């Protein structure tokens, strides 16, 4: 079972509460929310849990709204899961335990979390199904959900993510290939393009204006890399050449340069 999916479930439970918290507190009178904050939290969490949790009687498991999205359910009844997820937090707040007890519990919870994340082979399967110490103490294991909708949802989500990552990797490989071919000093692409554009420019002089073509850079006499166009004769310069040379007059028509802009 995916540990990431179980952690996502715990995280999304907190996010779902934060979505309703502000709206819920705005409905209650101010003196109630300020005088009984723990009870208000308990009421809100109870309402969220009641309306978002469903039971699968066939396999005796319970799934919250967020766990069903991740394809996970819990091997216990709805009341038992309510005790773990909602009521236990309220009881801990009301008991006002001493700091040493809270620290001791935090250390045990950290140890349980490390066991949960442990990739060691001899780590038992039960360790990977107990994300928190409360689940371990009450022996509530996470199991794969048999809901067809949840299974198809998580499968389609993973497939879409994989397809997106494949496209990103493909585009990255294409860009690296183009950078290697065009920016490498030993590349044959740039000299070939420079010779081709020079030939086209020479042949077009008979026909008159050649500004519509893309000639070589007047400064480095190579094919323009990241070309910039000047306003006087629309000839193309390399980005590095035009910015490092600080020209005031065009080297092609000897006119004053007032503005430059990217060619594409």
Q: Strand order of the main beta sheet, please?
A: 6-5-7
Query: Which descriptor suits the 3D outline?
Result: elongated
Overall radius of gyration: 33 Å
* Contiguous helical run count: 10
Q: Largest beta sheet, briefly?
A: 3 strands, antiparallel
- The average pLDDT value, as a whole number, equals 76
Which secondary-structure class do the elements indicate?
mainly alpha
Are there runs of 5+ residues with pLDDT below 50, and where? Answer: 206-214
In percent, how much strand structure appears in the residues?
5-15%
Order of helices and strands: HHHEEHEHHHEHHEEHE
Instruction: Please report the distance between the alpha carbons of the first and last residues.
Output: 50 Å
Fraction in helix? 55-70%
How many extended strands?
Answer: 7
What's the number of domains? 3
Oligomer: single chain
Quick summary of this structure?
The chain folds into three domains: 3-146, no CATH class; 153-187; 189-262, Herpes Virus-1 (2-Layer Sandwich), CATH 3.30.40. Helix content is 58%, strand content 8%.
What can you see in these coordinates?
One of its GO terms (biological process) is protein polyubiquitination. It is a multi-pass membrane protein. This protein is mainly α. It has three domains: 3-146, no CATH class; 153-187; 189-262, 2-Layer Sandwich (Herpes Virus-1). Helix content is 58%, strand content 8%. The protein contains ten helices and seven strands. The protein has helices spanning 3-27, 30-35, 37-52, 65-69, 78-95, 99-117, 133-137, 148-183, 189-204, 239-245; strands at 54-56, 61-63, 72-74, 142-144, 228-230, 236-237, 260-262. The protein has a three-stranded antiparallel β-sheet. It has a two-stranded antiparallel ribbon with strand order 1-2. Strands 3-4 form a two-stranded antiparallel sheet. A hairpin with a 4-residue loop joins strand 1 (54-56) and strand 2 (61-63). Helix 1 (3-27) crosses helix 3 (37-52). The chain is elongated and about 85 Å long. Residues 206-214 have low confidence and may be disordered.
């Amino acid at each position: 079972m995916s540990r990431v999916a179980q952690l996502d479930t715990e995280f999304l439970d907190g996010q779902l509460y934060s979505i309703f918290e502000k709206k819920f507190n705005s409905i209650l009178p101010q003196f109630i929310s300020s005088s009984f904050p723990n009870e208000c939290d308990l009421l809100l969490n109870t309402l969220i849990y009641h309306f978002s949790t469903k039971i699968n009687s066939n396999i005796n498991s319970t799934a919250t709204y967020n766990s069903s999205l991740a394809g996970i359910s819990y091997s216990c009844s709805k009341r038992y899961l309510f005790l773990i997820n909602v009521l236990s937090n309220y009881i801990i707040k009301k008991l006002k335990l001493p700091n040493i007890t809270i620290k001791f519990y935090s250390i045990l919870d950290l140890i349980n979390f490390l066991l949960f994340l442990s990739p060691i082979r001899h780590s038992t399967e039960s360790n990977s199904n107990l994300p928190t110490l409360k689940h371990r103490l009450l022996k509530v294991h996470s199991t794969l959900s048999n809901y067809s909708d949840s299974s198809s949802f998580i499968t389609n989500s993973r497939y879409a993510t994989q397809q997106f990552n494949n496209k990103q990797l493909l585009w990255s490989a294409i860009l690296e290939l183009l950078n290697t071919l065009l920016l490498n000093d030993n590349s044959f692409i740039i000299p070939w393009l420079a010779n081709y554009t020079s030939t086209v420019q020479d042949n077009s002089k008979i026909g008159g204006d050649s500004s519509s073509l893309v000639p070589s850079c007047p400064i480095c006499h190579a094919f323009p890399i990241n070309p910039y166009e000047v306003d006087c004769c629309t000839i193309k310069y390399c980005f590095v050449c035009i910015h490092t040379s600080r020209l005031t007059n065009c080297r092609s028509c000897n006119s004053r340069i007032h503005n430059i802009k990217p060619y594409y």
